[in-house]
Amino acid sequence: MKVNYPKLKVIHAVIGAALFTAIIAGCSFGPETQSRKIPESQQQNLNEATSSNEVGVGFGRVYLQRSESTGGSVLIGVQRTISSDPFNIVQVLLSGPTKTEQDAGLRSAIPASTEVLSARYVANDLVKVDLTNEIFRATGDDLVSSIAQIVLTLCDIPGIERVIIVVNGEVNEWPKGDGSLTSQPLTAYNFPGRVISSQPAFPAIVNSLNE
């Protein structure tokens, strides 16, 4: 029997093309027409996926005091989970340092018995804080640090630039960083040099022209 080779080649080509099309269709990256159950081994634990390594770390900061070996003290900003409400912010500050922060040598110069009666906006950039008279249990440098803690903590919130502090509704004079007294609203600039800067140290500048 005589075999027609050209026809046989055509048949082989048709079969090969059909097989290639079937393979490509099985490996398609297009959208699936039917839902497919994902094996449990490939499913992600949603609790693990939504957990954060920054639990307890908020966008706000409160300022606490640390004593230096020189005998002076500085203020350091530590992160807290707080809202932008002035009353909440002052309450968190008055709660003092955590156990970990205490172990790191941080404390609050604000007397522990001090309470906040109110803290609210009285202008776009001005917050008025009303405290109980226990604040006066702080004296000397501790009183300066106490006021600085309140002012710096509130002024760390965007939009707050000035803070006026009263006691039981009455206006008082408060010490600024240079020791002078004022009954006017206070700003972060009234306490220069009392806060450790969070800015990194600048690298040394090398004058390559002289080399």
Structure description:
This protein has 5 helices and 9 strands, in the order ααββααβββαββββ. Helices cover 27% and strands 21% of the residues. Strand 8 (174-175) and strand 9 form a beta hairpin. The chain has helices spanning 5-26, 46-50, 86-94, 99-103, 140-155, and strands spanning 60-67, 73-80, 106-107, 116-123, 126-131, 162-167, 170-171, 174-175, 181-182. The chain has 211 residues and is an alpha+beta fold. The chain has a domain at 60-190.
Strand and helix map with partners:
Blueprint: H1 5-26, H2 46-50, E1 60-67, E2 73-80, H3 86-94, H4 99-103, E3 106-107, E4 116-123, E5 126-131, H5 140-155, E6 162-167, E7 170-171, E8 174-175, E9 181-182
Parallel strand pairs: 5-6
Antiparallel strand pairs: 1-2, 1-3, 4-5, 6-7, 8-9
Helix pairs in contact: 3-5
Summarize the model shown.
The strands form 3 sheets. The protein has a 4-stranded mixed sheet, with helices on one face. Strands 2-1-3 form a 3-stranded antiparallel sheet. Strands 8-9 form a two-stranded antiparallel sheet.
List keywords for this structure.
alpha+beta, 21% strand, globular, disordered C terminus, 211 residues
The SS-based structural class is alpha+beta
Helix content: 25-40%
Major pleated sheet = 4 strands, mixed
Strand order in the largest sheet: 4-5-6-7
Q: Round the Cα radius of gyration to an integer and report it.
A: 34 Å
Please mark out the parts with pLDDT under 50 across 5 or more consecutive residues, or reply none.
Answer: 22-58, 198-211
Overall number of strands: 9
Range of strand content: 15-25%
N-to-C SSE string, H for helix and E for strand:
HHEEHHEEEHEEEE
What is the distance, rounded to the nearest whole angstrom, between the alpha carbons of the first and last residues?
96 Å
- Tally of DSSP helical segments: 5
Mean pLDDT: 76
Give the CA-based shape: globular
